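Quick one: structure tokens for this chain, please?
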Amino acid sequence: MTATLTAPSRCMVLQGVSWSTYQALIHDLESDPGKRLTYDQGTLEIMVPLPPHERYKSRLSRIVEVTTEETETEIASLGSTTWNREDLQKGLEPDACFYIQNEQAVRSKDEIDLAVDPPPDLAIEVDYTSSSIDRMAIYAALGVLEVWRFDGETLTLYGLEGGEYCPQETSIVLPLLQRADILRFLQASQTMGETTWVREFRMWVREQLINQNITKKK
């Protein structure tokens, strides 16, 4: 097994890591959620996120949570749960993830096995510090329907089509949300207190719902 430090030094890449070693590291690091593991057929990346990464992850998660609250949509929020499949020799921990369309399928489960259970419907990927492994390819292999990816400036909503991700302007799992609107609120969050920002976003969601109801009645 060989190790490589990549810039910045918060990231380490290990080559020749067995599946059993990867699983052991997941177990050993359960008490240290500050480290993120990505595994792809023997290559293991260990990354420690930077503060801006955590801030954007939180904002994007709040957008999902407020939208589902206001639309009365049931969700299962599973944060940075580790998702992996031994048959694919792939695994990762999203910055945040949600079951939305498949929420009922996992509602009562303490353990979810992606070999038989559906994957999360939505994953949030803040790529503030670029990964050395193609995490999008892992999401696609696991079958995650939609990924929101933000690099600090650009937001892309990816929808899974035919095993590959295609950019979308409208969220598949939360069709009330447009990419441009999500990005606008992310940018606004840099100049507003978090409580005020959440209140403003909630008011916006309610306005969209009112406008939708008016349109339906015409």
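Residues 50-217 form a domain with the tt1808, chain A fold (CATH 3.90.1570).
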